[in-house]
Amino acid sequence: MSTKPVIGLIGGSGLYDIEGLENKVWRKVSTPWGEPSDEVLLGTLKGVDCVFLPRHGRGHYVSPSGLNYRANIHALKSLGVTDILSLSAVGSLKEELAPGHFVIVDQFIDRSVARQSSFFDTGCVAHISMADPVCQRMGDKVAEAAQDVAIPFTRGGTYLMMEGPQFSTKAESHLYRSWGCSVIGMTNLPEAKLAREAEMCYATIAMVTDYDCWHPEHEHVTVDAVIKTLHANIANARKLIEAVIPRLGQPRSVCQLGCEHALDHALMTAPSKRDPALLEKLQTIAGRVL
Ligand SMILES: CSC[C@H]1O[C@H](OP(=O)(O)O)[C@H](O)[C@@H]1O
Ligand SMILES: Nc1ncnc2[nH]cnc12
Questions:
Q1: Pocket test for ligand 2, best of 184, 187, 189, 234 (most atoms within 8 A of CB)
Q2: To the nearest whole percent, how much of the chain has pLDDT over 70?
Q3: Whose CA is nearest to atom 4 of ligand 2?
Q4: pLDDT at residue 246 greater than cutoff 90
Q5: Is 210 assigned a catalytic role?
Q6: For residue 38, what are the contacts with CB-CB under 8 A and spacing of at least 6?
């Protein structure tokens, strides 16, 4: 059976609107997990239904640790989103990933300490696989599109997920380099986990803005430095979005990588031990298997 995908776009630092969307309308969405970062922007791009959410809200007022990741992902799921594309500013942990370079991330390491990154809890316990945390099918489409619009990119790389909001110390930055990480940011892993629990495909486009603080020949990262590179990155992100949406929006069968069946063997709690109040909250996310 083939379905028509609905594309969710989560815009990070510097990306608060999608100008090219047609029939745009901002809509408030409520969720059982609280309020999302902002209203969502509904519209179509080249005939493909899209839902855009500015991760930090318009005006960038929600901090990485203060983000309600569950509400954000629930809001997209409740609007029928099947594929989420995240666009994020990141620091580079490798010489060859210079500011302006895009990385189609394929792994994460979690150094965050204070994120609510599961819909499940006592009363309905579930364990999903995060071995392959992003959707490679989406990654393929992003890579094709990036090639088409001539954006310098690398396929694959590990995103070090830090807590923040302060940037890293030099010792931390060198440690993450010694672990082989490619880029560093403060937001994407909770989204990848929650999207997987919600059985949605998810991919990250990490847009390098700086060399963090490890590089002897570059200034240590500051917001000022990030913003300087951000403008060029956002212009490229807009080109990439226009090129990738028609590819992602093609009718397709269920994702062969299993993203859309992640809950098939995940639930542990016996039906008689499940908490009715939690089950109610989980209907939109996990109703398929409850
Ligand atoms: C403005 S620099 C730090 C900030 O930028 C990144 O945000 P996002 O992932 O939403 O683009 C990073 O994760 C930090 O939140
Ligand atoms: N160096 C860095 N560390 C964490 N998040 C970032 N976002 C952009 N640059 C960053």
A1: 184
A2: 100
A3: 185
A4: yes
A5: yes
A6: 53, 54, 57, 58
Residue 55, annotated ligand binder? yes
How many A from CA of 271 to the centre of ligand 2? 43
The residue type at 131: A
Q: Quick one: which of 160, 66, 72 has its CA closest to 115?
A: 66
Report yes or no on 212 lying in a domain.
no
CATH of the domain at 13: 3.40.50.1580
Number of domains composing the chain:
1
Q: What value does the mean pLDDT take over residues 206-224? A: 96
CA distances from 188 to 10, 28, 153, 171, 206 (A): 10, 23, 18, 22, 9
Can you give the C-alpha Rg of the chain in angstroms? 18
DSSP 220: P
The answer to whether position 65 is within a domain reads yes
Quickly tell me which residue has 């500013």 as its tokens.
89
**What's the domain range around 44?**
7-88+113-158+185-207+225-286
Which residue from 165, 159, 168, 147 is spatially nearest to 94, judged by alpha carbons?
Answer: 159
Residue 88 known to bind ligand:
yes
Query: Residue 82 and residue 250: Cα distance in Å, rounded?
Result: 12
> pTM for the full model?
0.98
pLDDT at residue 162, rounded to an integer: 98
